[in-house]
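Postdoc handover notes: sequence design on the structure in folder B. Input tokens:
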């Protein structure tokens, strides 16, 4: 890929919020960020926060308070699709402080953690998935073989195993040459607020006798393509931003 294209792609993955935000704090720990107006709304609604002007401070027991806030955001159309999935809430040192419903993480600017698995067949072709057409985020766009969020109290390895089965119907033990490729961080505005996501990148070879098969209804289809076709789709912006970055990392670009 040419240098200017790569620079533009990486710039899209490191953008400030569209509007100013203030820290969301739990005591002295920063656990996210919110728009000041939202902080005022939460306080006015009697929710367990104190909006101080330069921060929004969570009050009470963290899990219970975040659960009330998440439900309020959902009821007022300010959250993404409700998932009944808890994600860890970490501070700026990476220490887990609480858990929160997945639907609320973007309005509250909470950092999420994800895993991506890039799969290739023995001939070197790339296994790709097309996201389901009813996905809440990036429906119908192309993605890596597997990408998923790390659930509360789950390790990266556990997420990798779980999501590889749920999305692709593959067991890690059946894959070959599993490798780590470090991590990537994306910071950018999204419809529900602000996304901060740290993605652990893995690759593996899918043996010739195995064919990915979705188990959870979140994938439209899989396709195995050669590298020229992969590069053409990247250039055509057919992938999610995160998948494009992950693929380029594995490709060494």
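Designed sequence:
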């Amino acid at each position: 890929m040419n240098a200017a294209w790569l620079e533009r792609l990486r710039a899209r993955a490191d953008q400030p919020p569209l509007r100013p935000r203030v820290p969301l704090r739990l005591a002295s720990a920063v656990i996210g960020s919110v728009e000041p107006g939202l902080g005022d709304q939460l306080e006015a609604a009697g929710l367990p926060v104190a909006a101080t002007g330069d921060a929004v401070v969570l009050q009470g027991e963290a899990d219970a308070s975040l659960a009330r806030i998440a439900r309020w955001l959902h009821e007022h159309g300010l959250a993404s699709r409700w998932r009944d999935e808890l994600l860890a809430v970490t501070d700026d040192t990476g220490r887990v402080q609480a858990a929160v419903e997945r639907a609320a993480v973007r309005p509250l600017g909470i950092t999420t953690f994800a895993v991506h698995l890039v799969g290739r067949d023995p001939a070197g072709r790339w296994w790709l998935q097309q996201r389901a057409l009813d996905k809440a985020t990036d429906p119908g766009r192309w993605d890596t073989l597997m990408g998923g969020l790390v659930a509360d109290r789950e390790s990266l390895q556990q997420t990798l195993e779980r999501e590889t089965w749920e999305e692709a119907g593959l067991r890690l033990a059946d894959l070959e040459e599993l490798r780590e490729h470090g991590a990537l961080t994306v910071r950018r505005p999204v419809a529900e607020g602000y996304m901060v996501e740290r993605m652990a990148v893995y690759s593996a070879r899918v043996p010739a006798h195995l064919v990915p098969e979705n188990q959870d209804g979140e994938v439209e289809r899989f396709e195995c393509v050669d590298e020229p076709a992969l590069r053409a789709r990247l250039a055509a912006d057919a992938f999610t931003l995160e998948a494009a970055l992950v693929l380029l990392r594995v490709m060494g670009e």
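Context for whoever picks this up: The chain has a mean pLDDT of 96. Don't rerun without checking with the PI first.
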